[in-house]
Specification:
Blueprint (H helix, E strand, L loop, with lengths): L1 H26 L15 H19 L3 H4 L2 H24 L5 H30 L4 H11 L23
């Protein structure tokens, strides 16, 4: 029983360690008492990270001049998906679900939207990917966050395209 209690205590402490900074930032921290609040991750930060990821993806692909011409639609798709994802995340944070059915409905709506976003990404990527070498094709999935783990089915949640929705 002592081992079980130690494990439960350690797990609870770990949850607090992980959740406390986010809860503290969301609650306004010291601002509630008159201090100043520091925004941990702003929209400008999100834009900078997106720009860096797009730049890294383009750099690692080492596009030829002909391939460069096919890049703009793919980049536009990535930017639209990221912007829509951020908007969904903000909308979700502003209105709490009324009950578990409302929550499940929201999850379903978000999944359907992510599915449509993924299809638009695939449509935008196809012309470029058709011209990539095998080496370039091998680099792209990892830079999108498509990490393969044995025995674990792939989830769109691992793609950084949808990261802002979870912020």
């Amino acid at each position: 029983m002592t081992l079980f209690r130690s494990i439960v205590t350690a797990a609870a402490a770990g949850c607090l360690f992980v959740a406390a900074p986010a809860a503290y930032a969301q609650s306004g921290g010291p601002a509630a008492g008159g201090g100043t609040t520091i925004e941990i991750y702003s929209d400008a930060d999100a834009a900078a990270v997106l720009n860096a990821r797009i730049g890294a993806l383009k750099t690692v692909l080492e596009l030829s001049p002909d391939q460069q011409k096919l890049w703009p639609p793919l980049e536009a798709s990535i930017r639209k998906i990221a912007a829509d994802s951020m908007a969904r995340g903000k909308q979700r944070s502003e209105a709490a679900p009324t009950d578990f059915l409302d929550l499940l409905e929201r999850v379903g709506d978000a999944e359907a939207t992510r599915a449509a976003d993924l299809k638009s990404f695939v449509a935008a990527a196809r012309p470029l990917v058709a011209t990539l070498t095998d080496v370039q094709k091998n680099r792209m999935p990892a830079f999108l966050g498509m990490a393969a783990r044995a025995g674990v089915p792939f989830s769109a949640r691992t793609l950084w395209l949808f990261e802002e929705e979870e912020r």
